[in-house]
Specification:
Length: 356
């Protein structure tokens, strides 16, 4: 199998890309995501990556003025003052964004046009992690400080969301019932729901802060993919094959060892000291295999009508945990089963063809 995203025969359009870009930039507006993603201002990750792509593109024969424009935009964003009390978080987010972009730029400059995106992205993330670990190692209590900064940031976001909901309710004239009053009905139930949901968000953040490296790596992978896609839509200097459809998404089967090592660290008592590393490995590589499984499901549904596809999407949104589990199972088993090749070979004559 190819290592990475299979090359697309032509550049894809803007419609789906713009939707994905908007979802990435606005995903922190969803409370459950804001309580999980380490970098809330995702533009801090995206703009430096785009600038790095245009620098590599200029080196490959692209326009110098485009590189200057995007570098200036990235520098302007990173130089913006931090919010009160968020200086440490801003430094961590901006520092990671710069390291990630620099690593991806070096990988693009050192690579060849035949290297697919995912190979470059994983290499860049690996280099960025190593550089960050070195920086944390030379700083006093660096790793613990980074975790505490993200934990504090998660708590701030959850409190901000609860305060905004309470403020909106007060504007509508909804008040909490007095202590000891027999207040019931919608007001009391809604306030109870708000309190319960806020507690769940805090508990969720407490779990996610232990796997913030994996979440940061996944968030970075999304930023790299969007930066790569935007660059190849705005520049004629090719850095490599454009992103292909999810239906043909695959990667090197040797990445299964990431899951194996993660399970080993988590399940065996002798590796209890590195169990947190195992959980991060499981989350990151599990997400990759779940995406691979979603690609298989999309390949199966590629011939469905629009109405059928819309219905499947609605079912997937309502029952997303089940869909995610099924996708993970398909993605992992695809290492040995190669489902798309098997199903393509089993099709009746005349129905073979590229999954466009």
């Amino acid at each position: 199998m190819d290592y990475g995203l299979a090359p697309a025969p032509r550049e894809q359009g803007w419609k789906k890309f713009v939707l994905a870009l908007a979802a990435f930039l606005l995903m922190s507006a969803i409370p459950a995501l804001a309580a999980a993603v380490p970098v809330e201002d995702t533009a801090v990750l995206l703009l430096p990556v785009i600038a790095a792509c245009f620098i590599a593109g200029w080196w490959a024969g692209g326009r110098f003025v485009l590189a200057v424009i995007w570098v200036a935009l990235a520098a302007w964003l990173l130089a913006a003052p931090a919010a009160p009390g968020a200086a440490a978080y801003r430094d961590l987010a901006s520092g990671w964004g710069l390291i990630l972009a620099a690593s991806f730029g070096v990988v693009c400059l050192a690579g060849t046009d035949r290297r697919p995106f995912l190979h470059r992205a994983l290499s860049a993330i690996g280099i960025a992690i190593l550089m960050s670990l070195l920086l944390l190692a030379v700083s006093h209590d660096g790793a613990h400080h980074a975790q505490s900064v993200f934990a504090e940031q998660f708590a701030v976001r959850n409190q901000r969301w609860a305060a905004s909901v309470q403020s909106y309710m007060q504007q509508l004239g909804v008040q909490a019932p007095a202590p000891g009053a027999n207040g019931g009905g919608v007001t009391s139930e809604y306030l109870q729901w708000l309190s319960t949901y806020a507690q769940r968000l805090n508990a969720y953040s407490a779990i996610m802060v232990t796997v913030y490296p994996a979440m940061l790596a996944l968030e970075s992978l999304m930023a790299l993919a969007l930066g790569w896609g935007l660059y190849h839509r705005l520049s004629r200097a090719r850095l490599g094959p454009p992103l292909a459809s999810l239906k043909v998404f695959t990667f090197n089967d040797q990445l299964i060892w990431g899951l194996v090592v993660g399970l080993t660290f988590v399940l065996l008592p002798s590796f209890a000291s590195v169990a947190v590393v195992g959980r991060n490995l499981l989350l990151f590589f599990g997400a990759l295999y779940a995406l691979r499984g979603l690609g298989i499901l999309a390949w199966v549904a590629r011939r469905a009508s629009r109405w059928t596809l819309a219905g499947l999407i609605m079912v997937g949104v309502l029952f997303w945990p089940i869909v995610l589990a099924v996708a993970l199972a398909f993605g992992i088993s695809d290492t040995w089963a190669d489902w798309r090749t098997r199903m393509q070979a089993a099709m009746p004559p005349g129905r073979h063809g590229s999954p466009s």
